[in-house]
Specification:
Elements (H helix, E strand, L loop, with lengths): L4 H4 L6 E2 L5 H6 L11 H4 L1 H14 L3 E3 L13 E2 L2 E2 H16 L4 E6 L14 H18 L3 E7 L2 H14 L4 E5 L13 H11 L3 E6 L3 H14 L4 E5 L4 E4 L2 E4 L3 H14 L1 E4 L7 H15 L1
Parallel strand pairs: 1-12, 2-5, 5-6, 6-7, 7-8, 8-9, 9-12
Antiparallel strand pairs: 3-4, 10-11
Helix pairs in contact: 4-5, 4-11, 5-6, 6-7, 7-8, 8-9, 9-10, 10-11
């Protein structure tokens, strides 16, 4: 296993995470609307190739293809494969590529349902679902649990508590923010940050959302509210359709500039999200190395 990631986050040089999974696999032929996790069993070579491409671009953390793997979002079987096996294989594939030199961050995304009082999902049921997923991923060899793309502080809290109940792994939490530094549910970045710190998150940050500028706004607010390590993983801009194709408008060169800004804010983990490619990660790695020169 690699060295303790929390100790590594104390060093002055930020860690490089990886980039998009779903949009990357779609570019490799994953049909629209198909859960990416299905390829953990049906196209494992493509998933390994994804992880390998990010490794070669300079990623030091590989994220598992398990984002939708909780029982409230994914059925018990998908394409004839048990959900638990899809989740387990997602971690194992990342671990195979990471070996004993890179960290594996096991991804847990939202349930897709509203928690009480806005919906009918109880916090207890959400916590149980996340605990189940986290346990599977820890047993499969993950180094970190990564709760990501959250918009509801209550749901993020349930996920964090579930992961803590089921594993002893450090838990990172990232939210998706708009241009003003608020989640879709209206929570300010500083409030989300303080709540996750109070519950015991090991690191906190922003991913996905309204693109790089939104992540910079959110992390600037978080930096004033916490001493926890900060994570920045923006989308590659905002998608648009050109001749029937989805195009993301943030280039690798622009990502290098965003990475420099995140370094100034104090981000300890920098990566990317939807629409990004290994070229974006290489630009981030190059920017980090240049900042240390």
């Amino acid at each position: 296993m690699p060295a303790d990631i929390l100790s590594r986050l104390c060093l002055p040089v930020p860690l490089v995470c990886d980039g998009a999974i779903g949009t990357y696999l779609q570019a490799r032929g994953l049909p629209a609307g198909t859960p990416p996790e299905l390829w953990n069993i049906e196209q494992p070579d493509e998933v390994r190739a994804l992880h390998r491409a990010y490794l070669e671009a300079g990623s030091q953390i590989l994220t598992t293809n398990t984002f939708s793997g909780n029982r409230l979002r994914m059925p018990d079987t998908l394409g004839g494969h048990p959900r638990a096996e899809l989740v387990r294989r997602g971690v194992e594939l990342a671990r195979e590529v990471a070996g004993d030199t890179l960290w594996v961050a096991a991804s847990m995304g939202p349930t897709g349902r509203l928690l009480e009082p806005y919906g009918d999902l109880s916090c207890d049921l959400a916590e149980e679902a996340y605990a189940e997923q986290a346990q599977i991923m820890a047993e499969a060899g993950a180094d970190v649990i990564l709760i990501e793309t959250m918009s509801d502080v209550l749901e993020a809290r349930a996920a964090l508590l579930g992961a803590q109940r089921a594993t002893r792994l450090p838990v990172f939490v990232t939210f998706a923010f708009d241009e003003t530094g608020r989640t879709m549910m209206g929570a300010p970045a500083a409030e989300a940050c303080r709540e996750m710190q109070a519950v015991g998150a090991a690191a906190i940050g922003a991913n996905c959302g309204a693109g790089p500028a939104a992540v910079i706004v959110a992390l600037t607010q978080m930096a004033r509210a916490t001493s926890l390590p900060l994570i920045g993983q923006p989308n590659a801009g905002v998608p648009r359709l050109e001749a029937g194709e989805t195009v993301w408008d943030s280039t690798p060169d622009e990502f290098a500039e965003h990475a420099r800004r995140l370094i100034e804010i104090g981000a300890r983990v920098i990566g990317a999200c939807c629409g990004s490619t290994p070229a974006h990660i290489l630009a981030i790695r190059t920017a980090i190395e240049a900042a240390q020169a």
